[in-house]
Amino acid sequence: MNNSSLVSKLRRWFAEGLAHSFGEPEQEHRLEPPRIGVQPFHDDPRRSRA
């Protein structure tokens, strides 16, 4: 068995485990619950034809 391939497999396994345990920062916002309470109004309402 080649030791360098074993070391690279071990390194990849450790990196994947570490990334899984800490999570991905760009996906963390999906896990947050929705805000509760009054939210600011951001929509620009259309003017009605009169």
Low-confidence stretches: none
Beta-strand content: under 5%
Q: Could you give the order of the helices and strands? A: H
Structural class estimated from helices and strands: mainly alpha
What is the mean predicted local confidence, pLDDT? 77
What does this structure look like?
It is rod-shaped, with a radius of gyration of 24 Å. The protein contains 1 helix and no strands. With 50 residues, it is mostly helical.
Ordered list of secondary-structure elements with their pairings:
Blueprint: H1 3-22
What are the salient characteristics of this protein?
mainly alpha; 1 helix; 50 residues
Short description:
The protein is an all-alpha fold. Helices cover 40% and strands 0% of the residues.
